[in-house]
Specification:
Strands 1-2-3-4-5 form a five-stranded mixed beta sheet, sandwiched between helices. It is rod-shaped, with a radius of gyration of 32 Å. By secondary structure, it is α+β, with helices and mostly antiparallel strands. The model has no long low-confidence stretch (mean pLDDT 85). 49% of the residues lie in helices and 9% in strands. The protein has two domains: 105 residues; 84 residues, no CATH class. It contains nine helices and five strands.
């Protein structure tokens, strides 16, 4: 995709279309290539060489054939000799493999959908985090009484918690598995797919970001 976008250019002004125009111009004129033609060929060859250096392996051979008219003219301008475009290979690259880039480059790259943990962390800075159950609203603390073996819970969003399991240290996992307990409104808004107990008006605990 990156290779195709480089070939097409931001406004269809990349070396792919410029090379097609260059070859059309050279083959249509009866006079030998001019100094201006050599200058154009040199710019095209440099652009295509840069692209080919990082191109996908499936495109490298086609890019070399596609660049040949410019490469040949640049070389012959230094060594002398009759200039003849290698039409067969160039046409194959120009009319077969490379044009697929026009379609690929015009297809928008999908924007990754942020996962739930990233979305919540961006909205509530500092979450998720591990806190002591003793720092919670008394209703939530009482609910966890006898259920904890380490006195710790994971604060998922302000006022909503999950039992902390030391064997699951990745706190992001708690957003998509298990249950969550705490403020009903916050649970329904941000964690609607998690079951658990809920109460009205549960505020964030003393160890949570303010």
């Amino acid at each position: 995709m990156t290779t195709c976008r480089d070939l097409i250019g931001t406004a269809n002004d990349g070396p792919l279309y410029r090379m097609v125009k260059f070859v059309s111009t050279i083959t249509a004129q009866s006079a030998p290539p001019s100094a201006g033609d050599v200058e154009t060929a040199n710019a095209l060859a440099e652009s295509l060489d840069r692209i080919n250096a990082t191109a996908d392996s499936s495109l490298k051979s086609d890019l070399e054939s596609f660049s040949a008219p410019a490469d040949d003219l640049v070389r012959l301008s230094k060594t002398g000799g009759q200039y003849n475009i290698r039409n067969a290979k160039w046409k194959t690259a120009a009319t077969s493999a490379l044009p697929r880039c026009a379609t690929e480059a015009s297809t928008p790259t999908p924007t990754p959908t942020p996962d739930l943990a990233s979305t919540i962390s961006a909205k509530f800075l500092g979450y998720p985090l591990i806190v002591d159950v003793s720092s919670l609203d008394y209703r939530v603390a009482n609910w966890y009484s006898g259920k904890l073996n380490n006195g710790k819970v994971v604060a998922l969003v302000p006022g909503v918690y999950a039992l902390y399991n030391p064997n699951v240290p990745d706190l992001k996992k708690y957003y998509t598995a298990g249950s969550a307990d705490g403020d009903t409104t916050m649970k329904d808004t941000y964690l609607p797919d998690l079951g658990g107990a809920g109460w009205s008006g549960v505020q964030s605990g003393s160890q949570e970001p303010k």
